[in-house]
Amino acid sequence: MKKWLLYSVFFIIFGLMTVTFFNPSEIYELTQKTAQFIPYQEIPEGLVSLKAKDCGVCHTEIYREWKTSLHAKAYTDPFFTAYHKKDDGDPTCLVCHTPLENQSPIILSSESGQYNDLKSTINPDFDAELQQEGVTCASCHVKDGVIYGSYKKKDMNAPHPVAYADEFFSKSLCQRCHEVPSKSFALMNEGICSTGMESNRGVWAARGYICQDCHMPVVNRPLMSGFPSREGKKHLWPGGYSNRQLQNVFTFKAKKELDHLAITITNSGAGHKAPTGDPDRFIVLDFIWLDKMAQETVLESIEFKRTIIWQPVMFVWSDNRLSPGESTVIKTKLPENDGTLVVNGTYHVMTDRSLNRLKDKFELKDEWPIHRSFLKNQKVPVE
Ligand code: HEC
Ligand code: HEC
Ligand code: HEC
Ligand code: HEC
Ligand code: HEC
Question: How far is residue 174's CA from residue 176's CA, in Å, rounded to a whole number?
Fold first, then answer.
């Protein structure tokens, strides 16, 4: 290698490490888009509080759905609680997990807009009950005393002020939280939890699909009992914890070649990579040959996951997840006996090692199962 090249490489690596050591815990930039609470919100006229529980007195079905969703658990989620402890209670986590200033015991501010300049002051208007509700109704619907929604026609008979906002038909509503922008020196184009960016490419984006189309299916019902039926959306947001949603992700086909079997796996159903978001998660597919004697032979296994180096410089070491519409082919020995090809799929929230570490060091308790089977002996057609 030429001497000048060696020196440049050395300086680039050294430069990156210096920047990171000065800034070890910064995981995203403090921008308008992310690390800021929604400013303090007053209770809209006609309502008793901002709490989901109180919206639920009238919007009973939506409330019941939301209550079972991860949005309702964004603050109480045992994995969040443990990881938050691990990160020394980093207040910026709460900007997405309890997004309203009303939900935060402290107010964050930064003169320079940078993380290392972050100051916090006590919040006199802190509402501890609202905090428990995580991504509560008000984080999407309330602004300056008005309840925003998706209806353009002015025929609402609501006991509270209502207005229409385009954002309900745009993925920007979701992207605010489902995207952690990357740092400029982090050796990657996309942030690590970049569901929003992943969804800008591929088949679904080309067809104009947005998050709501797959995560909030259409339903016709009254907004409150006794009111007219309207076209609205379910508030369940199924993701990696929903087997039904996971069963939508992959399609499979296989072809007998001369001396091997070529199995094609396509991400045909997720509008982003699968899994997406939280980098701990991974999906394992096991391809099994079932012969006439019901003997099972595991032919091949594949794990869709990321490996991330966090220190000293944060970068993605490997990532084999499929983008929306993308396929991969795995080749395996052609089985000798006649039989059928089946696939088993397992979704993993994290590895056992991570789980045990959270239990031992960060008081993880009452957690839910971290490994779940979502495909069991699904037949794969062989040409
Ligand atoms: C006292 C009952 C009641 C309470 C409490 C209530 N709502 Fe409503 N809301 C209604 C009714 C009634 C409508 C209009 C139904 C209709 O005309 O079809 C409505 C309409 C709406 C709409 C549609 C607005 C539009 O124009 O798109 C949204 C969104 C909404 N409410 C959200 C909320 C949220 C969030 C809360 C809690 C912060 C809440 N509501 C509390 C009764 C209530
Ligand atoms: C993560 C954001 C988000 C949260 C949290 C949320 N909503 Fe919505 N809500 C939406 C979106 C998006 C729509 C519009 C869907 C459409 O019509 O395209 C909507 C629509 C509505 C509507 C109009 C009727 C309908 O079904 O479309 C009502 C009423 C409503 N929400 C009430 C609530 C209540 C009550 C809560 C809390 C229990 C809540 N929302 C929590 C995003 C949210
Ligand atoms: C205010 C921030 C915020 C907004 C806005 C938001 N989300 Fe979320 N969302 C979260 C958080 C935080 C979680 C994870 C909660 C937890 O800790 O378990 C989550 C969880 C989810 C999940 C479940 C993930 C899983 O692993 O199963 C889905 C799906 C989802 N959101 C979709 C949406 C969609 C679609 C929208 C837009 C309509 C949206 N979110 C808007 C913060 C947000
Ligand atoms: C074409 C349908 C489709 C679109 C569009 C879509 N998703 Fe998904 N999403 C899925 C499916 C299917 C899954 C289950 C697979 C998975 O867990 O990755 C999923 C899972 C998720 C999860 C759970 C994380 C995980 O991997 O376990 C989150 C969070 C999520 N989506 C958020 C979003 C957001 C935010 C958008 C918009 C930027 C969006 N989705 C757009 C279909 C879609
Ligand atoms: C930019 C918004 C944002 C910030 C800031 C943020 N999160 Fe999240 N977090 C999310 C969203 C959205 C999800 C759910 C979708 C997914 O799987 O990525 C999530 C999911 C999680 C989960 C997985 C929950 C589960 O049940 O699997 C954990 C743990 C978590 N976050 C911890 C943290 C911690 C700790 C911090 C602070 C260091 C933090 N988050 C900061 C948006 C954010």
Answer: 5
Atom of ligand 3 nearest to the CA of 79: 17
pLDDT at 11: 52
Q: Which atom of ligand 5 sits closest to the CA of residue 34?
A: 1
CA-nearest residue, atom 6 of ligand 2 = 137
Calpha distance 305→240 (Å, rounded)? 14
Q: Please list, in sequence order, all residues whose beta carbon lies within 8 angstroms of the beta carbon of residue 288, skipping any fewer than 6 positions away.
A: 296, 297, 298, 299, 341, 342, 343, 344, 377
Task: Give CA separation, 302 vs 32, 73, 153, 371, in Å.
Answer: 39, 31, 50, 16
pLDDT value for 30? 43
Nearest-CA residue for ligand 5 atom 11 is: 178
* C-beta atoms surrounding 136 within 10 Å: 27
| Mean pLDDT of the region 316-322 | 91
The ligand placed nearest to the CA atom of residue 91 is 5
Average pLDDT over residues 61-81: 97
Compute CA distances 194 → 21, 284, 295, whole Å.
24, 21, 42
| 8 Å CB contact between 157 and 143 | no
| Ligand 4 near 178 CB (within 6 A) | yes
Terminal C-alpha separation, the chain? 50
pLDDT tens digits for 168-185? Answer: 999 989 988 888 765 544
C-alpha–C-alpha distance, residues 322 and 325, integer Å? 8
CA 25 – CA 279 distance, rounded (Å): 17
362-382 burial: b if 16+ Cβ within 10 Å, else e:
eebeebeebebebbeeeebee
Ligand 1: residue whose CA is nearest its atom 20: 158
Cα of 298 vs its chain's centroid, Å: 31
Atom 33 (ligand 3) nearest CA: 174
Of ligand 5's atoms, which has the minimum distance to the CA of residue 83?
Answer: 35
* Nearest ligand for residue 136 CA: 2
